[in-house]
Amino acid sequence: METSTAKSSAPFDNRYNFTARNSISGYLFGLGFVAFFDEAVFHQLLHWHHFYDKSTTSIGLISDGLFHAFSWFATIGGLFLFADLRRRKALWLVRWWGGVLLGAGVFQFFDGTIQHKVWRIHQIRYVDNVYIYDWIWNITAAMMIIAGIIITVRTKQKAKAAKHA
Amino acid sequence: MHNHQLVNNVMNHDFVRAGLVFFFIIFFLFYVLAVIKNNKLRKQWPSYRTLFWTLGVFCSAVSMIGPLAEKAHVSFTAHMISHLLLGMLAPLFIVLASPATLLLRSLPVAKARLLASLLKKKIMHIFLDPLVAAILNIGGLWLLYTTDLYMLMHQYIWLFIFIHLHLFLAGYLFTTAILSIDPVIPQKHFWYRSLVLVIALAAHGILSKYMYGHPPAGVPLKQAESGSMLMYYGGDVVDIILIFLLCLQWYNASRPRQYPVSHNINSL
Which Pfam families match (chain B) (predicted)? Predict the structure, then answer.
């Protein structure tokens, strides 16, 4: 990593020039990771989620297909953006984590409310008191969203302060 | 299932099998001969490309001849494995072998020029557009599995041949249009190719799940279930490779100028 181009600014400052890219990489990876976790843990390991549910609406089937496809792209693309930030010495890990939490939370909330409940692609688990699972699922999602927003706002303020200083 | 016998008998006939083996060997040797000729006259052709070509021809051959191909006539699950090999994995390997570039390099100049001008024709650009290629590829699958075509394929040998040729060619067209590794193939913008890839992968996944609940005519429910799950997850494996290669192209193309060589993918 010996680069001698620190003319304008210390390489450490470059992360303030890439605040958006740090967030986007986080959002993408967070969304992709939650989708991957869902597939690996709830479908494959626990067998709670079903591959196909007879009460699935068409729009549910389409949405599931689109998100499944996009989640692979998001995971891989998010990690390539991460690598790109590293080679530019612009990686801001705290802000990136804020993005991860926000992306993961928003997708999990969408999955737990719209996809599971409204479009009925499948339930979290095929048991009588599924509502308990639904509440835990969505509260976890909401906590991730709130934590993600706090981190994103704080790092943004820090970047603004650093730019004006 | 009586009608299944028809195509089954033809495809398992010793004469047909020998013909197919011969065809795949010729197909393989053409490339090897072109590589030998190229290496005598020009820059060495990378050996990994020859390896990819071997793997590609091998995957296609396994899907058409031998125990898997025989089973594919009666079992939908075996059919799905052979389709993944012929329609997705073989085309990927073949694309990575850059056969069009090799062909242009090893033909005599006049013929190479003629071929290059044919590739530049407008009609070729239409077929090589990622969106058109995706519709030919995934649209063909929808037609095959949601109409009676799948059942008819086992009754008429010409339909069987046409569908398998289409499967491979459409798979090749799609993969080459998305990756544009062969320099002869016009390269579309990264975002356009990514968008088409995600939509095509989604349409592939949606079809797999749809088939789980609505088996193609003549397919028993249990086989449809295992076959469709195989299609869903098997498709994912190949698509992950496609997404990785596409993103790698972006990563290399967007390398910041001030950090020339030390920050490539290997430094991670």
Answer: Caa3_CtaG
Q: Give Cα B182 to chain centroid, integer Å.
A: 14
CA dist A71 and A31 (Å) reads: 6
* Tokens linked to B82: 């052979």
The secondary structure of A93-145, three-state, reads HHHHHHHHHHHHHHHHHHHHHHHHHHCCCCCCCCCCCHHHHHHHHHHHHHHHH
Best residue in B246, B247, B257, B262 for a mutation probing chain A (most A CBs within 10 Å): B247
Of A1, A51, A73, the CB nearest to B198: A73
Residue ranges per structural domain of chain A = 17-164
**Residue keyed to tokens 């930030």:** A85
Cβ-based neighbours of A156, under 8 Å, separated by 6 or more: A19
Q: Residue A119 has what pLDDT?
A: 78
Residues of B with CB under 8 A from a CB of A: 194, 197-199, 201-206, 209-210, 212-213, 229, 232, 236, 239-240, 243-244, 247-248, 250-251, 254-256, 258-259, 262-263, 265, 267-268
Residues 6+ apart with CB under 8 A from B206: A61, A62, A64, A65
Q: Quick: pLDDT tens for A67-91.
A: 899 999 999 999 999 999 999 888 9
As separate numbers, helices (DSSP H) first and strands (DSSP E) second, chain A gives 5, 0
User: B78-120: per-residue pLDDT in tens?
Assistant: 999 999 999 999 999 999 999 988 998 888 888 888 888 888 8
Q: Name the residue facing B212 among A52, A70, A87 (closest C-beta).
A: A52
Chain B residues with beta carbon closer than 8 angstroms to that of A72: 201, 236, 239-240, 243
Cα nearest neighbour of A52 on chain B:
B209
Mutate to test the interface with B, among A31, A54, A63, A66 (most CBs of B within 10 A): A66
Q: What is the DSSP string of B36-64?
A: HHHHHHSSPPPHHHHHHHHHHHHHHHHHH
How far is CA B126 from its chain centroid? Answer: 18
Choose the closest CB to A72 out of B229, B236, B251.
B236
Whether ipTM exceeds 0.85: no
Q: What is the pLDDT of residue B2?
A: 46
Query: Cα torsion for A100, A106, A112, A114, to the nearest 10°?
Result: -150
Position B133 pLDDT exceeds 60 = yes
Contacts of A7 in chain B (CB under 8 A): none
